[in-house]
């Protein structure tokens, strides 16, 4: 079992502590949190060992799970890597692209593994259809959330939209050609609602909307490609796959047939895969353990996290 420690014991950090503690692939050694009062309360109530310094925790583990505010990601990760520790780092990877690039170099130099917490890659609805998403040419994404003061210290692009940026970059095998975007600050000092249009060299276009001031929650992405439409509901953990194929010469009574202006007939059929329920955060942590143990590439690499941050930064620069 890999010895793991958590830096940051806020809302998400406590979830990571609980899951690492129950995982059969990790031995939870303890945690550090800058708020000593909160840390000692967690230690007393939940029984996790509290370390009074970042250095002491890092020295005691094999894997450092960084769930601190984004501004401190770089310093925490740099220290852990310099001590030869593997790092799991929550999204966004760092505060700047330059910091992310440095971490990528340090991981390679120190021959350790790094993974970024883009948890939607492990959403069961996305996992069920990702292999069917082949060369999408138009993608539409909506990630809407009710207002929550937690997270408003960063633009909605880094708080919410970056999830969908990472998903899109993982399925579009082409470089970004152009980005146009707009954002509006309504409640916070940074934009609370944003829209971005990403154009890729291969002709694919992605239209993303993110809001943290909505009246209802929504996390839905639609992929359009040749002869197929794929919808993923990340919130409800549902997916829908609609495909087209050449219509049979003698259609059945219940076959759905479309005919275009040229007279070509296509049959519409549904091909919805089975969704296996999982805990996405536990999955991302345990697949990272697998990557370490088998010396293979993590599912969400520091390169992936860097590219998602790069695109997010380009979007913010448009505001």
From TrEMBL:
Q: Which residues form the GFO/IDH/MocA-like oxidoreductase domain?
A: 155-216
- Matches recorded under Pfam families: GFO_IDH_MocA, GFO_IDH_MocA_C3
Q: From which domain of life does this come? A: Bacteria
- Xref: InterPro entries: Gfo/Idh/MocA-like_OxRdtase_N, Gfo/Idh/MocA_Oxidoreductases, GFO_IDH_MocA-like_dom, NAD(P)-bd_dom_sf
Q: Which residues cross the membrane?
A: none
Residues covered by the Gfo/Idh/MocA-like oxidoreductase N-terminal domain: 3-118
Cite the GO molecular-function annotations of the record. nucleotide binding
PANTHER family in the cross-refs: BILIVERDIN REDUCTASE A
Protein known as: Putative dehydrogenase
């Amino acid at each position: 079992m890999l010895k793991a420690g958590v830096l940051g014991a806020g809302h998400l950090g406590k979830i990571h502590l609980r899951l690492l503690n129950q995982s059969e692939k990790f031995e939870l050694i303890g945690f550090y949190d800058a708020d000593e009062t909160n840390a000692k309360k967690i230690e007393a109530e939940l029984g996790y060992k509290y370390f009074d310094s970042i250095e002491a925790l890092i020295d005691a583990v094999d894997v450092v799970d960084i769930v601190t505010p984004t501004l401190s990601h770089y310093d925490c990760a740099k220290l852990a890597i310099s001590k030869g520790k593997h790092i799991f780092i929550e999204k966004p990877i760092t505060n700047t692209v330059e910091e992310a690039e440095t971490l990528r170099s340090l991981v390679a130099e120190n021959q350790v593994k790094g993974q970024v917490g883009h948890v939607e890659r492990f959403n069961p609805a996305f996992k069920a259809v990702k292999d069917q998403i082949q060369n999408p040419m138009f993608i539409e994404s909506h990630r809407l959330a009710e207002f929550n003061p937690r997270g408003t210290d960063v633009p909605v692009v880094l708080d919410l939209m970056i999830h969908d940026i990472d998903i899109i970059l993982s399925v579009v095998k082409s470089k970004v050609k152009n980005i146009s975007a707009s954002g509006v600050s309504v409640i916070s000092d940074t934009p609370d609602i944003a829209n971005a249009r990403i154009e890729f060299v291969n002709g694919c276009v992605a239209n993303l909307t993110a809001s943290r001031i909505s009246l209802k929650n929504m996390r839905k992405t639609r992929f359009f490609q040749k002869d197929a439409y794929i919808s993923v509901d990340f919130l409800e953990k549902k997916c829908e796959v609609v495909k087209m194929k050449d219509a049979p010469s003698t259609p059945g009574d219940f076959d759905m047939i479309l005919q275009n202006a040229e007279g070509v007939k296509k049959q519409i059929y549904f091909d919805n895969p089975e969704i296996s329920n999982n805990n996405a955060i536990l999955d991302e942590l345990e697949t990272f353990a697998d990557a370490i143990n088998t010396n293979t590439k993590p599912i969400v690499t520091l390169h992936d996290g860097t590219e998602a941050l790069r695109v997010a930064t380009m979007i913010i620069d448009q505001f």
